[in-house]
Amino acid sequence: MVYMILGKGFEELEAIAPLDILRRSGVPVATAGIGGRTVEGAHGIPVVADCTVEDIDRDKLEMIVLPGGLGGVASIQGCPAAMDAIRQAHGDGKYVAAICAGPTVLAKLGITEGRTVTSYPGTEGQMGACDYRDDRDVVVDGKLITSRGPGTAVAFGLALARILAGEGAAQETAAGMLLR
Hints:
This protein has six helices and eleven strands. By secondary structure, the protein is an alpha/beta fold. It has a seven-stranded mixed sheet with strand order 5-2-1-6-7-11-10, with helices on both faces. The model has no long low-confidence stretch (mean pLDDT 97).
């Protein structure tokens, strides 16, 4: 199961595009809200999460995904249950993925140390001792997947689909969405 953590102020496109692509590719995904099931995004769009972050079934967790948005990132960092779930996912060797400002949460937990990553322009100084790449929209370094921002949300979603559903499913999903 993939869990996507939604905190108040999350960047809507960075959450909904990968969520949609993963579900179209046949990957089970649940959104997990911080502070309740209805979470308002950065642009005032309320989203009803599938569960709360406290309800994440860590035994079934295969990947954890963090959208960006400064408010969403602050919400995640201020939520012990969210931070514990991320820490445990990484410690258990599960996939950890983040886009935009989301990778700064991973850096705060030491997950990006010595790894190749990317994030939203201007957050480089918060990424710790890593091999920072600003020349790629999506960076996959083993079980760590990072991406740059709203404009890369579709590429990020397709990268996650390739990892979890396979290249064929990702290509079929992209074709069905008329992506080139």
